[in-house]
Each structure stands twice: as structure tokens, then as C-alpha cells.
Amino acid sequence: MSPKKASAKKAAPKKKATAKKKVVTKKKAATSSKAAPKKKAAAPKRKTAAKKTTTKKMSAAEAKARADKLLQGFGNFEPYQPKKGEAYMNDDQVVHFRQILTAWKHALMEEVDRTVQHMQDEAANFPDPNDRASQESDFTMELRTRDRERKLIKKIEESLKMLDNENYGYCESCGVEIGIRRLEARPTATLCIDCKTLDEIREKQKGG
């Protein structure tokens, strides 16, 4: 045997060995690919449209109309339906008017807070004298309305005390019943309709 053939025979087993190594590595790669769980692609995040909050500012006329409505009375309630033969200013009626007076007081206090916040937000030193005068006029009007509301809140608190003392609903001049419907129209009323009419006539005569 020639030395070249002997060297070829010796080199042959090395190739097989390298081939076996490649097969083993392929099997390992296959098993590793099966074992490793496939990662799910993350779902694309949905873009949430940002909600635009637009606060509508009330004009001076709208604010005055709202305040005047509150000054006239609190209308967000169900009228009381009296039962036949029930006593005047019984427990149910007392609860009814206490709820009206309390809700009215809270609404007025919220209106006062709204005005203070509005004045703080809108306060500015305008270079134009006309703009500055207009703003001062609006603020003066709102402050007058707030003063009226402050006095009304005091009357409401007095009416709540009268409810506690069981004097609410009776005319302070003649002592007769003021009436449920009149009290619902004006919860702070202290005079019956006849005494109130006479009182207004006296005021007109004094003023005239």
C-alpha cells in the first residue's frame, strides 16, 4: 500500500466525525427551537384620543340671570302633595321644607364660590381704559349680587331655626297659616299673602 492511500484512509474517519458533529448540532438546534415557546407579538397599543375638556365661560348677563333665578327661589324640587285631613306643618311637611331650604342654601353658597373663582381668573390689568372700566362694572354688579345672596343665606338660616322652634309657616304679623304653596314659592316668607300685600302698600305710600 502506498503512503498516499494510507493517509487518505486515516483522513476519512475525521470527515465522518465532523459530519456526526453537524448532525448532533442540528438535532440540538431543532430540540431547542421546539422547547423555546414562541413569543407572541405584542398587540399594537391603541391610541386613545385625548378628550378635550372645554369649559364654557358664562358671560356677565348669563351669570346675573342665573343669580337672579337663585335669588327668586330654588325650583328643583317636587311640590308637596298634602293628604286629606293631615295637620299643617306636620313631620312630612317639615322635612319637605327643610330639604328645600338646605338645597337652596347650598346652591347659593356654590354660586358665591363660583363668582370668587371667576373674579380671580378674569382679574387682569387691561391697558385699555374702556376694557378696564367694563371689567370693573361687571365685578361691581357681581359683588352686589353676592351681597344680596349673603343676606338671603342669612334669611334661610333664620327659617331653618324657625323650623327647629316649630314657628315656621305661620305669619309673624297675624299668626295665620302662610300656606304650603306660598312657602314653596318663597320658602323664607314670614308673612301671609294679605299681610304682605298691606306691607307693600305701606312701603309705596312712604316712598311716594
How would you summarize what this structure contains?
Helix content is 65%, strand content 0%. It has 208 residues and is mainly α.
Give an overview of the whole structure.
The protein is mainly α and 208 residues long. Helix 2 packs parallel to helix 4 and helix 3 runs antiparallel to helix 4. The longest helix has 36 residues.
What is the string of helix and strand elements?
Answer: HHHHHH
Biggest beta sheet attributes:
none
How large a portion of the residues is in β-strands, by DSSP E?
A: under 5%
Please give the count of helices. 6
Number of strands: 0
Q: What distance separates the N and C termini?
A: 151 Å
- Shape summary: elongated
Helix- and strand-based class? mainly alpha
Query: Ranges with pLDDT <50 over ≥5 residues?
Result: 1-36, 47-56
Q: State Rg.
A: 43 Å
The portion of residues assigned to helices is 55-70%
Rounded mean pLDDT score: 74
